[in-house]
């Protein structure tokens, strides 16, 4: 090969090296620039389908809308996130009761504070629809009158508000009734605080209430609001939440509760209702607490209904409570059940009353398994009904006795501080393994409960 040919090839090789170096540098710059560009994206972006206005003042953003149909107001976003240390205030226009917020492109992350204002104070019925879901971070807070967070299908989102801003009134009515088709992958996770003066509803493929999280509705939320809440001026909730001070959680797949869900009452005010439904499994984990307790005087316990299509598990350290007030009030009602199996791994099911009628606990799936640790009701009636089998494993105690230290005390020998509840087990087959105990006796002048075991 001639010298000229070699020189030519070397020049071409050097050109290739220079081009590669340039391209590598460019690609490196792009890799560095991409996160910066992403970070620079505004946390809240409207999509032009509604007359929504964002006003910024330091760490506070106020959002208003001029898109109103009757008592319903609308906002439509491509993205909606709130960073740590940021506050976003959603304002309901005058003469409206419901504010429907649609988020289309990505899951919403609430790491700051979100408030909804009606007539200048916390209130209004706020709906957040996002097919991808919502995560309320550990420092995130939501303060509203009523709250519905749901993960509809994208097709349903397009029906609600079309590309040209057309609003489908039939789809809106469907949303207000709670008849929302859910996306297959929507996720709602609460790690922080959700407070609603009236009610909360969460509906998604999967719902997680993490350890340290709190969901409070009704009187349980009022104390946290302080003077901000216009209690007397709150509008009635949308039809899906007309049950009163209610928490409603619906999942097409699984619900996991490791934090606190509360619809507690207050002095002179009964507790509300909590309803949780899952198309798969429900787990109330260690540290998880679902409550509809009365508080103070003349405060009845509320109602808790938890239902899984597959398996419902109450873990050791989990708690379901619908007690009457500390001074007076009737105990409430708890149903913890499933289509297939309920696993009692310990935990507490409380529906007792200090001064009032005792409440009741019901479990009625196909199969019941009492395993790992003891289960007690603190004086409430306890009914376990299974279509197939009830199994109480070795050395497991089920107790309806009311003693001073129900978690750490000895239910067989500790003194009673109230009447014991009735205890009923009914199934095609009931198996009480070695060392298992069913306790409903009482002393100190308190009434003994009846123990009934029936095999069919």
Question: What this model shows, in words?
Answer:
- There is one protein chain.
- Residues 1-34 and 227-245 have low confidence and may be disordered.
- The longest helix is centred in the first third of the chain and has 38 residues, at 3-40.
- The chain has one domain (44-369): Single-stranded right-handed beta-helix, Pectin lyase-like (Pectate Lyase C-like, 3 Solenoid).
- Strand 4 (68-69) and strand 5 (72-80) form a beta hairpin.
- It is mainly beta and 456 residues long.
- The strands form three sheets. It has a 34-stranded mixed β-sheet that branches.
Low-confidence stretches: 1-34, 227-245
Strand content: 35-45%
Proportion of helical residues:
10-25%
Question: How many E strands?
Answer: 39
Provide the structure class: mainly beta
At the fourth CATH level, what is the homologous superfamily? Answer: Single-stranded right-handed beta-helix, Pectin lyase-like
Domains, number: 1
